[in-house]
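Re-run requested by the PI after the first attempt was lost when the workstation crashed. Everything re-entered from the original request form. Ligand of interest: nicotinamide-adenine-dinucleotide.
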Amino acid sequence: MKLVTVQDLAQIVHKHGFDNFIRDLIQYLKEDFVRWSEFDKSPRYAAHVPGGVLELMPTADKQYFSFKCVNGHPDNPFSGKQTVVATGQLNEVKYGYPILLSEMTTITAFRTAATAILASEYLSRKDSSVLGLVGTGAQSEFQALALKLIRPITTVRYFDTDPAAMDKFERNMADKGLTLVRCNSAKEACEGVDIITVCTACKKHVVVIENDWVKPGMHINGLGGDCPGKTELDKNILFRGKVVVEFTEQSMVEGDIQQLSIDEVAQVLHAELWELISGSKVGRENADEVTIFDSVGFAVEDFSVLRLTHDLAHKYGIGQEVDMVPPIADPKNLISVLN
Ligand SMILES: NC(=O)c1ccc[n+]([C@@H]2O[C@H](COP(=O)([O-])OP(=O)(O)OC[C@H]3O[C@@H](n4cnc5c(N)ncnc54)[C@H](O)[C@@H]3O)[C@@H](O)[C@H]2O)c1
């Protein structure tokens, strides 16, 4: 079995190229989303603990089974720890053996960005050039850099309640060919933008983005409302245009649409993302409509990025082969591993 550590993953991305990693991941996501019905799907298991949540996200097709174990602890940075960390595993289905154990903190950021970008490809205006980014934490650079690959983004307007997080964003984005506009409020960050990506961490119902700030033609990627009792968008925004989610059953509990009644969800929900990708539903139809991707993160996205990580680890010979399955010639002689 391959073990891919954080350092191995960094090496894979270095060899393959950051942009290529995202482009290939978008391709893997498309391949997996168009065969949506082939996956075993269920809302994730969540253990709500004081200060956060621990989640298990499994899925499978005929070839692989995958799962991610991930947390969400919004106050962790106050203790010098990350809000979201994860590990993940890929098993081949035929014999049930694990084939990859990978770090998943970094590849979660990649897959969250690639998924938001995929949604933006179908929902945002093709001429979108200004991104409003609210929340410049761990996910933020991945989001901005990925969006640049599919839309002619020239400018990022950004705001975070933590000035140090904005300083960090500026340092990381200084040489990326984008005009960076530091803002004094979320409202200011949303002024005159084509796409709003909101990615904040607070385990409460918070109105980070207000309805008045959303103008005709805007697309919103709402990423931080991803847990029961944790939302970011003014509820009225959800009535402004097409709302797209990943997996309705999970999003109704975890997404910003948790603020709506079942009848209201039926009224506003336009599609699951796979329906846009497979062509069974349309995305944006005109320059004036408001579109909303209410993302919570779904297991198939983890499956796709684990598949890509596995393929690239083998392509570049990166990662360590480790015995996580007893290497015994006689499958019934398990006790011999102790010799
Ligand atoms: N949808 C998905 O698939 C997905 C995937 C990964 C993370 N997330 C969620 O995205 C969020 C951000 O994750 P992260 O890893 O970047 O966390 P992070 O803690 O590194 O960054 C979050 C940032 O939000 C800022 N913030 C909090 N409240 C704010 C407000 N009202 N206005 C502006 N800024 C505010 C914080 O200061 C922090 O810098 C989390 O809630 C996480 O659960 C979602």
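Saved to the shared folder this time. The pocket of nicotinamide-adenine-dinucleotide is lined by residues 72, 77, 83-84, 108, 112, 134-139, 159-162, 165, 186, 199-202, 206, 208, 223-224, 226, 295-297 (CB under 6 Å).
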